[in-house]
Amino acid sequence: MTVDESSETVEAAGNTAGKPAGRGEAMVPRPDQAAHDQSPQSGDAPGSPDAPDGAAPGESPEPSEPAAPPAPRKWWQWLYAPFVAVWRFAFPKKPRPFIVELPFLLAIALVLAFIIKTFLVQAFVIPSGSMQQTLEINDRVLVNRFSNWLGHEPNRGDIVVFQDPGNWLDAEPVKPKNVFSKTLTAIGLLPEDNGDLIKRVIGVGGDHVESKGNGAPVTVNGVPLKEDGYLYPSNTPSMEPFSVDVPKDHLWVMGDHREVSVDSRAHIKSVTGGFVPVGNVVGIAVLKVWPPDHFGTLPVPSTFKQSFQALAAPGAVPVAAFALAVPITVVRRRRKLRTAEALDALGL
């Protein structure tokens, strides 16, 4: 009786193995299906399903080797590292809110203003009437400072801004400044209006500058200047007589408003001799920018485009004449020798 009941149970299980389980009935897997489910899948390594190929069952995978430390920077890489940092700081990959960007923008603007003022151009205020009518009081001018860094020296006719060579400012008006305005001026956001002077270059190193006075014209190396185009109306070239030889690397400067300008003539008896060292030159004024109705360039007057070199050095003319005469004499001598040889060959 027991065997028969077992057979019926096995048979019933065999019949239901291939049929889907009914509602409330348990699913009984077939023996071959259970064996297949327990076998390792293709592509999986023996042991744990997550174990890598070649790993034995029950063994953990070997840890990977640590990455090598980065190589130290070369010396030349440190040179452009600050520029890279500034670039990433100024142009981040992710945009920042405007309230966060504003301090950075102000800092960058101040740095750029300082660089432009120090190396490129700088604005100045005209404090006095010594350069009228070329420059009026309170005019703003731009001064080219880049030429100084290139080694360019001022030439005759240039309007230059220069530092006081020795107590020249005692006769010029100086406006007082507070700490705030001094800071903005140092950065370049405000124009300079004290501590420097502005005049026109009349003579450079090696020149002989002279005037007989009483309205006589100013001469440079014996060549008279025609200054009617830029002198203040009713002013004469010079009422004071003077005669100077400009030392090397120095300048002789004069204002366009000759009757009120305290320039090289007024300091001719001082320690400086009235000369301005080239090293004191801040830059050359090139443009009037304010007020708008005064806007314009500051070109060199045509009278300074004459040739001043012929008499610049004593004996220049005799030396030049001798240099031209030597080859002419040599050619004439060779022709005479050839003629004499030809006559001797003919027996004449």
Automatic annotation (TrEMBL):
It catalyses: Cleavage of hydrophobic, N-terminal signal or leader sequences from secreted and periplasmic proteins. It is a single-pass type II membrane protein. Residues 1-71 are annotated as: Disordered. CDD domains: S26_SPase_I. It is an enzyme of class 3 (hydrolase). Residues 105-290 form the Peptidase S26 domain. Residues 42-61 have a biased composition (Low complexity). Belongs to the peptidase S26 family. This is Signal peptidase I. It comes from Catenulispora subtropica. The lineage of its organism: Bacteria, Bacillati, Actinomycetota, Actinomycetes, Catenulisporales.
